Amino acid sequence: MTDYQVFKSRAFDQDISRIHAYLTRGNYYDSTIKEILETIYSDLKRLRTSPKIGSLLSVRTTIPNDYRYLVSGDYLIFYKIFESEKLVRIYHIYHGKENYLSKLKLHKHQSIYQTR
């Protein structure tokens, strides 16, 4: 099996910085912060050999898209697979409680899981 390259966007790096700052301000123990970040980076490595382990985001919104998301602890890693290039591009990471559909600009239509 051919490994995929995993490319992290600048936005992903900014998200990681934001998460780190939030956890630090929240007085999380350094060991807890380290564990959270190690879990995230470990999950990113898994995408090298198994890029389809994440779920299709299109099932969570009425707006067609080709994002996938991988659950990593309390966080969701959003990415796309480019098969012809054997590339996984990581776009963002958000806490599961954040309004990620809005942040990904997939909010024009109501999510199929939201009630009116």
TrEMBL record:
Keywords: Toxin-antitoxin system. Pfam families: ParE_toxin. Gene3D superfamilies: RelE-like. It comes from the Bacteria. This is Type II toxin-antitoxin system RelE/ParE family toxin. It comes from Pseudolactococcus chungangensis.
